[in-house]
């Protein structure tokens, strides 16, 4: 990025926008000014409208979670007459949201940990050691980025089944980790390459072994990259729906949150327990808002890191 | 780094490679083979050559799904990128310029935080949320309002020609914030002097956008297009949860992922489902290659 280098010729070649002699100065002229104001005004309105479009459905869900069914039908836009906390109790215990939530936490924390451990080990070795087959292994990992998961869905189901891991959290954790490896390795290998080798060499001279060097020197140095990928993986794995649907279909007590909510929404239709569904949705969304509010910067950086690289 | 390099390298690679080959590479390889068999899960699979692929060509549901991917592939990136670009420009360049420093409009930070939030939510959760928003009676967010004003409710998910667009709207709702942040990062790296020089020459905001921002953002736009295109080839969670009986009404919103899931895990047609998976794979690869080829142009250095 060098500001002195060539530019597209367009800006300099622009004709003056008005006949006004001040037009060359840009700011003094009438035409662009009013245009600017109109554009900015329109833009402001559009921004505000979009913010409303994003916020209102979520807010509306939170409100409906405190209503009863007749209120949901008769006055969807008003505040609830009273705060019916029992809706949440029903969602948490009877509809098993508590169970599903806990399952999601267990699965995602295990699989993210495993992904980060295995991914950073592989990425480190591939980025910083020369050995026969290095490129082949690297491309094996990275090629996984090009394949849609749905291509593998049928055989994957049978691989997991034959290993006796169907309807277990272990199976889901292993599968999540395996499918997170391509991006993790791709991203972290690039990151490890940028770390200075002087520190590693100093460590080696001090008699530090390869393994200790990795865990005690390189991992702490790679922290910013590790955090970005970890966030990327946590959010991706938390949102998974198709894999648990296939791998946990017969063990309802092992279901993760996305599955559970989708199932409750089907049942809410039969039981007409809409307030319970809204409460369940609130329980699923609220923690994400809190986490997002706290780690907003890191989350934005983590999720966009794949595209910016 | 000499002593004991190979044991260390192997020790570090063995677990990740084993896990990856077992659960990713091996299933992918098998998928191509299974797609050439008539496997239904009970007896051993029999090789049938390209029979499954020939049947695909006559399968109405398959073609419907492919057609929907075509619509998604055009609509999703176009709408999302257009909205996100407009907002990103507003947030970064839309405001006054003071001392050559480009500024976004007032409240830019707030908007960026709010817009991005849906990205954090799981698609399945969003799908359930919008089921509520789209509900066809007074309890729906939108129809509740319409009916208050004495209007007829709109059957968003039930009308065949409206259902797919209702789903696209939700996908756009979720995606815009991500691309606003992505484009903002791209715009922030465009040096302020360029804008200043252009403004000196009397360029308006609109001109700035089309002749400075857009060309200099080309690489980011390309990435965005590929990302959204790949997203358009998935759409399983949203269709499975939001649409009427998984891809309905009457297949009006079905996508390949939905058909693969249905054929494999409802009808146990594993061979046939795998053939669809292979078709999906080639469609995705073709799209990515075509996009990168067609949008290739000299990137502007600055």
TrEMBL record, chain A:
Alphabetized Gene3D superfamilies for the sequence: MetI-like
Source organism, top-level taxon: Bacteria
GO process annotations (BP): transmembrane transport
Primary location group: membrane
Signal sequence annotation: none
CDD domains, A to Z: TM_PBP2
Subcellular location: Cell membrane
Family: Belongs to the binding-protein-dependent transport system permease family.
Protein name in UniProt: Sugar ABC transporter permease
Organism encoding this protein: Micromonospora arborensis
UniProt lineage: Bacteria, Bacillati, Actinomycetota, Actinomycetes, Micromonosporales
UniProtKB/TrEMBL annotation, chain B:
Coiled-coil stretches: none
A biological process from GO: transmembrane transport
Keyword Transmembrane helix set for record: yes
Protein's membrane topology: Multi-pass membrane protein
Broad class of where this protein is predominantly found: membrane
InterPro entries, A to Z: ABC_transporter_permease, MetI-like, MetI-like_sf
Location of the ABC transmembrane type-1 domain: 66-291
Keywords of the record: Cell membrane, Membrane, Transmembrane, Transmembrane helix, Transport
Subcellular location: Cell membrane
GO cellular component: plasma membrane
Residue stretches spanning the membrane: 7-29, 71-89, 110-134, 162-182, 224-244, 270-292
Keyword Disulfide bond tagged: no
Gene3D superfamilies hit by this protein: MetI-like
Stated family: Belongs to the binding-protein-dependent transport system permease family.
Protein name: ABC transporter permease
Lineage: Bacteria, Bacillati, Actinomycetota, Actinomycetes, Micromonosporales
